[in-house]
Structure formats: structure tokens, C-alpha cells
Known about the structure:
Elements: H1 2-6, H2 10-13, H3 17-27, H4 45-48, H5 53-62, E1 65-68, E2 76-79, H6 82-89, E3 95-96, H7 131-139, H8 145-165, E4 172-173, H9 174-191, H10 199-209, H11 217-242, H12 250-255, H13 265-296, H14 298-306, H15 311-322, E5 327-332, E6 336-338, E7 341-343, E8 348-352, H16 353-356, H17 392-408, E9 411-421, E10 430-439
Parallel strand pairs: 2-8
Antiparallel strand pairs: 1-2, 3-5, 4-10, 5-8, 6-7, 9-10
Helix pairs in contact: 8-9, 8-17, 9-13, 10-11, 10-13, 11-13, 13-14, 13-15, 13-17, 15-17
Amino acid sequence: MATIAAEKPQFRTAPSAHEALKEHFEKHPDQRMSHPHKWDVSRSDIYAEDRWQPIFREMREAGPLHYIPESPFGPYWAVVQHKAIQHIEALPDLFSSSWEHGGITILERAEDIPEEERLELPMFIAMDRPKHTGQRRTVAPAFTPGEMKRMEADIRQRTGELLDSLPRGEVFDWVDKVSIELTTGMLALLFGFPWEDRRLLTLWSDWSGDTELASVRELDQLRRSFLHEMAAYFQMLWAERAQQDPQPDLISMMIHSEAMNQQSPEEFMGNLILLIVGGNDTTRNTMSGIIHGFDTFPDQRKLFEQNPELIPNAVQECIRFQTPLAHMRRTCTEDTEQFGQQIKKGDKVVLWYLSANRDEQVFENPDKLDITRENARRHLAFGYGIHRCVGARLAELQLRILLEEMHKRRMRVHVAGDVERVRANFVHGFRKLEVEITAF
């Protein structure tokens, strides 16, 4: 397996997706919409600058969903209230997730790409029933309560060792040293991925999870080249596992499953992206969001320090507060009226989980982190209905263990330098979070 990495030294110095996009728009500022619709929440600048909250608040006050006639991603419906998102998620036949209709992100298919260069990536989250059901059932056993129990000791050991290795009395980047390291290590174990190459998973996650890259032709070509490299690496792992007895890793589960062992290369790549982005970006950004949230609300950090029994609820509240995936998209399959609005067949319907988790009708004082919040579990960060996140239990377990191990070490983490947020409308999180550790 080491020879695979040796053939691809460009991975080691590859630019981050975030830096590539930032550089592109600095050189071509004219390519962003100069007069965006006031409620176009697809604009990535409002997330990079952390000023999305009042825009969504105004939209929620005006109604559950709104038509945005113009955006860099074409026209779409923005669904912003908690109740409306649950309602639409509960109608998966009327509001399709299928890649054939447009998939699960706000992204539009670029019409100017030649047929032979198109990269359509089916994945089970971007499928409708019955195919979605069979493929989801294949990977679900990796996330059962029994599996969580089996993995807990290993996660705790890795988390503890990492926390013990962190520098004291100096500023370092929490995102790189903790959030990326813990989640990438977890993914490597789930896939049975070569440990020494695990940072490739982070690279692939960033390039596949950033929807805005696809709006820039040359960056989209680079993105597709990374995805093909990822597919080639995993196909080698597939060939290797196919010669072995069934193992508990996700690749082996796919090989030994009727629903997934005949996947096309595109489908295999799509499901890999789903599992990598789903298992990496989400937990990674919540691990950073916890630190930033506790620093912003020191009264909540103090509550955590004095009441470790609040940790399970704190996990739910931190997931609600961070909401690591801002949206999911559906496509309407027939004309329908919803909440007094006429939605046409083919319309793009974008469910803004970020807004639902700040809905004043559900969460009192929603812009405050409150680890004692009684209904924190009502957050929609994992989605709702048949597409609810299959790895939710694993995310909760990793976050709970991180807080428990920090508490055990009486570790207090202060934001002590640069805070850089992801410039994207899909993945919602941090690129950099410079911190310093003290004790409580």
C-alpha cells in the first residue's frame, strides 16, 4: 500500500480546496454576483464572515419557505423553518433526493461540460426508495449500538493520547491538531485505510465537500482529478479485500452485500464521498465548534467544568449550535402546494438545517449556546426521515468522548489567535482555530 502513496507525491503538497477557491475569487472578483438577492443564502461570504444569522431570522419571520429567483446556483426555494423542513423531509417521493434529479446539494449541473467529462456520482443519500433502502442497510451495521460499544475503548484511547500530546503554554491550531486528526483517524479505522496515508482522506473530503468549486471550471477539473485518484486508491483496497474473508470495515461490507457489490465505478466513488464527507467534515467541524462555542459563552464552559453529567446533552446542543452541514437539497417531482406556495415539478428545494436549528418557534433564545437546553435533541443537524444521518451515533460518541477526556484532564481551551471559517454554503465550519490550553 505504501507504493500507492509513493506514486502520488502531489497529494502531499496539494492546495486545500478552500485556498484554491479563495485565490480564484481574489483574482476574479467579477465572477461573484455583484447584486445578490437579499435572501440568497447560497452566498458563501455570509458563512465565512459569520453574518448569516440575521438573514435567516428575517426569512423565518416572513414565512416557512421563500422563492429565490436568482443565485449563482440558479433559482431555488429556501425552506427555513424547523416544522417546514420536517414536513418536506417526510415526503421523500414528492421531494426527491436522487442524483438523477439534481442530488442533495444546491449545486446546478454545469451544462457546458462535454458528455465524456461529466462526473455523475450516485450515492445512497442521493437515491430514492427502493435503491436507497438496500444500500443504506448495507452500511448501517457499522453504526449499531453494539458496534459503538466495540469501538468506544479504541476511540477513548486515541482521544486521550492525542490530548496528552498537545502543547501547553503555546498557541496551536485546534482544527489541524485535534479536529482533523481525530476524525481522519476514525475514518481510517472504519475503512481499514492505511494509517500512514490517512491525511489523504482529509484532502479528498475537502475537495469533494466544497460545492462552490464546481462553479469554477478549472477548479472543477482539478476537483475531478482528485476524485479519480481517490477512486483508484479505493479500487486497489477493494481488490485486496475481495480476496479476504468478510471484515467489519465498510469496504468489506460493500463487497459482501448484494445491494452494493455490483456498484458501477461512479456509484462506488459517490458512496465513498458520502461516507468520507459525512464522517469527516461534520464531526470535525463540531469538534471545533465546541471549543469556539465554549469560548464565546464562558458561562457554559464553566457549567461543563462543574457538571460533567451535562456532557451528553452538551453534545446535542453543540451539534445544534454548530450545524456542520448547512443545507440539503431536494427536487420536486410534481406540482404541489406547500404552506400556501405553489412549487412546480423540477423546482429545486433547499432545506436550510442551519436556520431550522435557530428557529425561535422551537428553541428559546436560539443564538445562545445552552448546554442545559431541554430540547437540544430536536435539532435537525442529522436530517430527518429516511435520509437521517446513518453515522449519527458515531458522531455523538466521538464528541462525548472528546468532552469526557478533556474534563478528565481538567483542560480548558481558549481561543488565542486566528479564527478562519469555511467559505462554503454546504459544509459549515472552521478552517483554522488558534487556541491555547490552560487548566481549570
